[in-house]
């Protein structure tokens, strides 16, 4: 795979995202990219070179960017709006609600470098709120790929989905968690990555590989942890969550985002309605201090050891 | 996927070709007649609903009448025709004017107008494109229409089609910054299929625009953003028709239509309190008596 960066572990999902978008654009003239001066940060230089007319860069103007995308969809195009997630979702939230979701235009909103990917640039540039904000918007599907294979499959799905959706495209390097590339992602499906009956760890995006690492440690201690990758945050796979609750008796969720309103809240709302069991919701509790992404994830316990501790506490 | 041009679509069946051949007097008679019908319908709808934005509805009426009956290439029998002209009502609160126009033009049944804002009606206080044929975007929050119009104009250019895009805005709405993001983008791209129409009635919900957050000199602002600015009497159908159809000069066009809020009803005209006040039964009778 081309995504790996020499000397640093894991993959930056933006690369596979861009490769996939270019491949799709070659066979479908309706695909356009819309950005806010983010050709570089969204990894779209290749797209721009090959399809200069279909790279609609509106400059630093996110509200206009999302409205323009709705207008392009009105005109028969499939716009992929590519912008840093904090600015796309925060600045243009009302456009996402009214122009895209409520108007129900098939715009693909691509939140690049979400979570705390911008590390030491600080909370203004972190997008820890995006899942909470967007989950509240009716009609908008939300997908968080966990690795390059899922990213590619999700982009291909989104191009043909014919409905508004949000893709959260990670920048923080992650290892591959997909066993079978050909079946890497199915919209609405939680992927069972590891079977277990003592506790369930549900991760999304960057945190999925860490959930798997935690399960290894727990196994050594005699705790069989089930690991679910929930890449479709909305609509969420209720059946997989209910089964996990009933069969393992406790759930730890882990996400690179606010503990209020994101994956954990989505899982909890299923659990309380259908199969109440104890839960731990791991995520970001508030604005982060200064530090690079890896440091911040450790700082908030969003790592192997933090997940292990939460699972143990749940079982204790 | 809606909106993709296909070989089978054919040309948009439309009134404007017929209108173009009309002598001026006949064109004025037809457009003014449509506007009168729309105004009467607005008053009747708002009376039935006991709600609505009567001031802005009556000020934007001639603009919508001229567009739908004289300019837009649209077909009520094929409202999603890929080559249709796009009309986006950015001032979505003036939905009674839009619904009345759509009904008179054959997009929705006239009887439906009396369901305006009733429980479960398709005719919400602000338009919903998924429920009302002829509506292009679900507007209501201000400052949303022009960016969508810019996207539509870019789409026409990218797909090599010749549809035109008209966005109708309120003047108070121009205080929203998103309009100027869109204006800058349209000017930069020389989107000459795009027309912004400003319903310049000089009143916003709470006071006069110039007392609240000054908009003048308005033509200069648009010119500075790379637009062709045209200032006309927004209640003169021939002036509107000319402003919408005259040859383009390679720029997006802003038609500043000077209007009177509440136009046509003497006791509503140019009074700030009539932004969304509902006339009494007596006032409705007087209003309809004036609208003849």
Global mean pLDDT of chain A: 96
How many structural domains in the coordinates of chain A? 2
Mean pLDDT of chain B: 95
Based on the structure given, which CATH architecture of the largest domain in chain A is correct?
3-Layer(aba) Sandwich
Strand residue content of chain A: 15-25%
What percentage of residues of chain B falls in helices of 4 or more residues?
25-40%
- Class of chain B in CATH? Alpha Beta
Number of strands of chain A: 14
Order of helices and strands of chain A: EEHEHEHEHHEHEHEEEHEEHEHEHH
Low-confidence residue ranges of chain B: none
Largest sheet properties of chain B: 5 strands, parallel
Enter the CATH topology name of the largest domain in chain A.
Answer: Rossmann fold
The figure for the number of domains of chain B is 1
How is this structure best described in words?
The complex is a heterodimer of chains A (about 325) and B (about 290). Chain A is α/β, with parallel strands linked by helices and about 325 residues long. Chain A has 2 domains: about 5-170, Thiamin diphosphate (ThDP)-binding fold, Pyr/PP domains (Rossmann fold, 3-Layer(aba) Sandwich), CATH 3.40.50; about 190-315, 3-Layer(aba) Sandwich (Rossmann fold). In chain A, about 40% of the residues lie in helices and about 20% in strands. Chain A has helices at about 15-25, 45-50, 60-75, 85-90, 95-100, 130-135, 150-160, 205-220, 240-250, 265-275, 295-300, 305-315; strands spanning about 5, 10, 30-35, 55, 80-85, 110, 140-145, 165-170, 190-195, 200-205, 225-230, 230-235, 250-260, 280-285. In chain A, the strands form 3 sheets. Chain A has a 7-stranded mixed β-sheet, sandwiched between helices. In chain A, strands 9-11-10-13-14 form a 5-stranded mixed β-sheet, with helices on both faces. In chain A, strands 1-2 form a two-stranded antiparallel ribbon. In chain A, helix 8 (about 205-220) packs across helix 12. The radius of gyration of chain A is 19 Å and the shape is globular. Mean pLDDT of chain A is about 95; it is low at about 1-5. Chain B is an alpha/beta fold and about 290 residues long. Chain B has a single domain (about 25-290), classed as Rossmann fold, CATH 3.40.50. Chain B has 10 helices and 5 strands; from the N terminus they run αααβααβαβααβαβα. Chain B has a 5-stranded parallel β-sheet, with helices on both faces. In chain B, helix 6 links the parallel strand 2 and strand 3. Chain B is globular. The N and C termini of chain B lie far apart (about 45 Å). The model of chain B has no long low-confidence stretch (mean pLDDT about 95). The interface between A and B is large, with 34 and 40 residues.
């Amino acid at each position: 795979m081309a995504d790996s960066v020499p000397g640093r572990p894991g993959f930056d999902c933006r690369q596979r995202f861009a490769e996939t978008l270019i491949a799709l654009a070659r066979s479908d003239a309706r695909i356009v990219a819309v950005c806010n001066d983010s050709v570089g940060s969204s990894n779209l230089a290749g797209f721009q070179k090959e399809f200069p007319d279909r790279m609609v860069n509106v400059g630093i103007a996110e509200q206009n960017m999302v409205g323009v995308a709705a207008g392009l969809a009105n005109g028969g195009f499939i716009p992929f709006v590519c912008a840093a997630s904090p600015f796309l979702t925060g600045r243009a939230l009302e456009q996402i609600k009214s122009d895209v979701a409520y108007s129900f235009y098939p715009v693909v909103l691509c939140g690049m470098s979400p979570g705390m990917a911008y590390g030491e640039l600080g909370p203004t540039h972190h997008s820890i709120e995006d899942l909470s904000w967007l989950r509240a918007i009716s009609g908008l599907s939300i997908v968080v790929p966990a690795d390059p294979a899922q990213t590619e499959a999700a982009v291909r799905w989104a191009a043909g989905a014919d409905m508004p959706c949000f893709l959260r495209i990670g920048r923080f390097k992650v290892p591959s968690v997909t066993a079978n590339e050909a079946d890497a992602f199915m919209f609405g499906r939680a992927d069972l990555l590891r079977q277990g009956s003592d506790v369930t760890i549900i991760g999304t995006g960057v945190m999925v590989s860490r959930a798997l690492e935690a399960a290894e440690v727990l196994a050594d201690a005699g705790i069989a942890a089930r690991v679910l990758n929930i890449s479709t945050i909305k609509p969420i796979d209720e059946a997989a969550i209910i089964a996990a609750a009933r069969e393992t008796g406790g759930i730890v969720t882990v996400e690179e985002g606010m503990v209020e309103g994101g994956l954990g809240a989505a899982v909890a709302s299923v659990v309380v309605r259908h199969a109440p069991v104890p839960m731990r919701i791991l995520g970001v509790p508030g604005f982060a201090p200064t530090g690079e992404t890896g440091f911040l994830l450790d700082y908030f316990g969003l790592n192997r050891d933090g997940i292990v501790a939460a699972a143990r506490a749940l079982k204790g | 996927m809606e909106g993709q041009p296909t070989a089978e679509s054919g040309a948009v069946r439309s009134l404007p070709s017929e209108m173009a051949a009309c002598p001026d007097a006949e064109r004025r008679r037809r457009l003014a007649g449509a506007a009168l019908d729309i105004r009467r319908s607005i008053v009747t709808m708002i009376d039935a609903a006991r709600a609505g934005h009567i001031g802005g509805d009556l000020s934007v009426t001639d603009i919508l009448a001229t567009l739908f009956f004289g300019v837009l290439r649209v077909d009520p029998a094929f409202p999603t025709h890929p080559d249709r002209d796009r009309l986006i009502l950015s001032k979505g609160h003036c939905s009674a004017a839009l619904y009345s126009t759509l009904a008179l033009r054959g997009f929705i049944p006239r009887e439906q107008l009396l369901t305006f804002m009733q429980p479960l009606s398709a005719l919400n206080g602000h338009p919903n494109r998924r429920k009302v044929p002829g509506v292009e975007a679900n507007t209501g929050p201000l400052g949303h229409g022009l960016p969508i119009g810019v996207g539509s104009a870019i789409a026409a250019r990218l797909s090599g089609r010749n549809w035109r895009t008209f966005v109708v805005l309120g003047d108070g709405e121009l205080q929203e910054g998103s309009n100027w993001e869109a204006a800058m983008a349209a000017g930069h791209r020389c989107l000459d299929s795009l027309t912004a129409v400003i319903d310049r009635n000089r009143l916003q919900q709470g006071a006069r625009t110039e007392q609240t957050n000054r908009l003048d000199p308005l033509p200069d602002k648009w010119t500075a953003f790379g637009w062709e600015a045209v200032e006309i009497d927004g209640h003169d159908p021939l002036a509107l028709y000319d402003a919408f159809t005259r040859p383009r000069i390679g720029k997006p066009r802003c038609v500043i239509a000077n209007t009177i809020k509440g136009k046509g009803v003497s006791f509503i005209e140019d009074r700030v309190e009539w932004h969304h006040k509902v006339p009494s039964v007596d006032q409705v009778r007087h209003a309809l008596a004036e609208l003849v």
